[in-house]
Amino acid sequence: MPPSVAVVTDSTAYLPAVEGVTVVPLSVLVAGEAHDEPDYTGDLAAVTTSQPSPERFATCYRTLAAAGHTAIVSIHLSAELSGTVGAAELAAASADLPVEVVDSRSLAMGLGYPVLAAARAAAQGASLTTVAEAARTSAAATRTFFYVDTLDHLHRSGRVSAAATLFGSALMIKPLLHIKDGAIQPLEKVRTATRAVARMEDLAVQAAASSPVDLAVQHLAAPDRAQALAERLRKRLPGLRDLTLAEVGAVVGAHVGPGMLGITLTPA
């Protein structure tokens, strides 16, 4: 029998298939045509993105209820970055079973780690409240730093209004950013890509200290740099339990642009 509490997330977690986790995809829009993430693998230069509709969440929740689940925890990317949480909440309000929607206040593995925490709790037979709390506790303890080659993509999509204010017209610097209060915010000004990545690495090491951690290195079209960063972190983190190396998909990719490198870490 399936666990009584089902876990739902969206495609911006970029997790591999996880038992007990159902993924509702966001969409990539190209010339007016919608493609589910991760199906679209084309050029990201001219795409826009869209959250799932409430009806898509409603269909997912009905399917899980029909499969025998008695409650759902639905965990999604930050409401500061997308309307996905709002769509899930609309569907939850009319669902035939209790649905608790959790805003991860992050994205990519900043969302993925809370989803995994919830899935572990659900697999152990935990209650709706306990599964949701597992996700929220993980989300609160998870930190994300990332580097982009240029702010242009984030600036155009309106995802870095605070950063645009801070950096003014100096969009040629190498921005070091982080997720804070659910939003993408500038962290430091760095003049070269090498220094930016090195500083991000140092921040991750400082945040982890000697504590047991799980860590993800994420990238877009930068596999060699991501692999090198992962290997350096593996050597510098004595408490590292698990290291994930992954490429983000089209929805996040459309906003960050090629060359993005990110580090997400969470207590193990």
Task: Please report which band the strand proportion falls in: under 5%, 5-15%, 15-25%, 25-35%, 35-45% or over 45%.
Answer: 25-35%
Taken together, the total number of domains comes to: 2
Q: Tell me which CATH architecture of the largest domain applies here.
A: 3-Layer(aba) Sandwich
Total strand count, please? 13
- CATH topology name of the largest domain, in short, is Rossmann fold
Keywords: Lipid-binding
Protein name: DegV family protein with EDD domain
InterPro entries: DegV, DegV_C, DegV_domain_contain
GO molecular function: lipid binding
Protein described:
The strands form 3 sheets. The protein has a 6-stranded mixed sheet with strand order 10-9-8-13-11-12, sandwiched between helices. It has a 4-stranded parallel sheet with strand order 2-1-6-7, sandwiched between helices. A 3-stranded antiparallel sheet has the order 4-3-5, covered by helices on one side. It is built from 9 helices and 13 strands. The mean pLDDT is 90. 47% of the residues are buried. It folds into 2 domains: 5-140, Rossmann fold; 143-267, Hypothetical Protein Tm841, Chain: A,domain 3, CATH 3.30.1180. A hairpin with a 2-residue loop joins strand 9 and strand 10 (183-190). With 268 residues, it is an alpha/beta fold.
Question: What distinguishing features does this structure have?
Answer:
DegV family protein with EDD domain, alpha/beta, DegV, 6-stranded mixed beta sheet, 13 strands, Rossmann fold, 9 helices, Hypothetical Protein Tm841, Chain: A,domain 3, 268 residues, lipid-binding, DegV_C, lipid binding, 4-stranded parallel beta sheet
